[in-house]
Design goal:
The protein is mainly alpha-helical. The protein has one domain (3-22, 50-234, 248-288, 312-335). It is built from 15 helices and no strands. The chain has helices at 3-21, 26-33, 36-64, 73-89, 95-107, 111-136, 147-176, 179-189, 195-211, 218-233, 236-244, 253-266, 277-289, 294-322, 327-335. Helix 12 (253-266) packs antiparallel against helix 13. The mean pLDDT is 88.
């Protein structure tokens, strides 16, 4: 990533952090967070965060099974931790690329196919979270007049439709005309490239696109769905339990599901550790949509944000050190022969 891009992300992060924490008494924030019931709820929340990474790694192995059947859960877990450690410490979400590439190098599988499984995982998670959000809205009829919520509703509907239509079209093309059509289109798109580069790029892209198909067998599909449900049970319910420990919040479960949708979308902004993007979206949702006071909203935001990134950064750093990695090697992993 170029220095200019780093500076743009840094500038965006600083603006969002200012908007999130302006006019806040941080001594009062510390006083709120130090209450015993919040510390106890925070420990439960942290345990749920740790469990998430085990479930995520186990579930990822199901998508990778068609490329290698004997992947060890420990290797999947390590790769997952390293990916999130890098995403939370560097701008640009580089960990999303490093995670599959690192695993592919270690396990001798195709990098483009491994990357495709991460894309599949993210798409399925997004659809599942969108579904939870849409199911929560009928239980929040009193808030549906809020312009912020209505805009989010339209955004989620549009996003869901776009994802579903895109993958239906891909499935139709692959089933009716298949690889030959895609190759023909790519040859036209990359007509300007030298022949040796063109062949390699097309081969990598074809492998990646073909790997995007959700062609799990019935057993693996059921296992993946069950693990996704378990994964989601490690998220929204614990945000809800943590919220109950804060005086002045105590939002309903549907309200927390809607709140989570806000921070989920904001987290797509590639700031390191979601700095600024998470914080601004969280404060905005809690204060504007649910009328939580600014100090309580910021206290909840800071505490939850800290707990979310604590385990992947601490455990990821340990794996990073134990594996003998360095930032230079990470850059090379992401650039040299990245998807071949």
């Amino acid at each position: 990533m170029k220095i200019r891009n780093y500076l743009i992300i840094f500038f965006i992060s600083m603006i969002l952090l200012y908007l999130a924490f302006r006019q806040i008494n941080f001594f009062q924030i510390l006083k709120i967070i130090s209450r015993p019931q919040i510390v106890f709820a925070g420990l439960l929340f942290l345990l749920s965060c740790i469990l998430q990474y085990f479930v995520r790694a186990w579930r990822w192995g199901i998508l990778l099974k068609k490329y290698k059947t004997d992947l060890k859960l420990g290797m999947l877990f390590k790769s997952t931790l390293l990916g999130f450690f890098i995403s939370y410490t560097l701008p640009g979400r580089l960990g999303e690329f490093f995670r599959p590439i690192y695993l592919a190098q270690k396990e001798k599988i195709s990098k483009s196919q491994a990357l495709a499984t991460v894309v599949q995982e993210r798409i399925l998670d997004a659809l599942f979270i969108f579904l939870i959000f849409l199911c929560s809205l009928p239980l929040m009829s009193s808030q549906m007049e809020n312009i912020l919520l209505r805009k989010l509703f339209v955004l989620v509907l549009a996003g869901s439709a776009m994802i579903i239509v895109s993958f239906l079209l891909l499935e139709i093309v692959l089933r009716t005309r298949g690889e030959a059509v895609l190759k023909k289109v790519m040859l036209r798109l990359f007509f300007f490239l030298p022949a040796r580069w063109k062949e390699k790029i097309i081969a990598i892209l074809l492998k990646f696109i073909l790997a995007l198909r959700f062609d799990l067998n019935k057993k693996d599909m059921i296992n993946y769905l069950l693990l996704t449900i378990l994964f989601q049970l490690c998220i929204v319910p614990f945000y809800w339990l943590l919220n109950l420990a804060f005086e002045g919040m105590k939002l309903s479960f549907p309200a927390i599901a809607v709140y989570f949708m806000f921070i989920y979308i904001a987290a797509a902004i590639p700031t390191p550790g979601m700095a600024g993007s998470w914080d601004f979206a969280s404060r905005l949702a809690l204060t504007e949509l649910f009328a939580v006071s600014a100090e309580v909203a910021v206290a909840y935001t800071l505490f939850a944000h800290f707990l979310v990134i604590l385990f992947p950064i601490a455990a990821g750093f340990f794996v990073f050190w134990k594996e003998g990695l360095n930032w230079k090697r990470i850059k090379q992993t992401g650039s040299e022969d990245a998807l071949s």
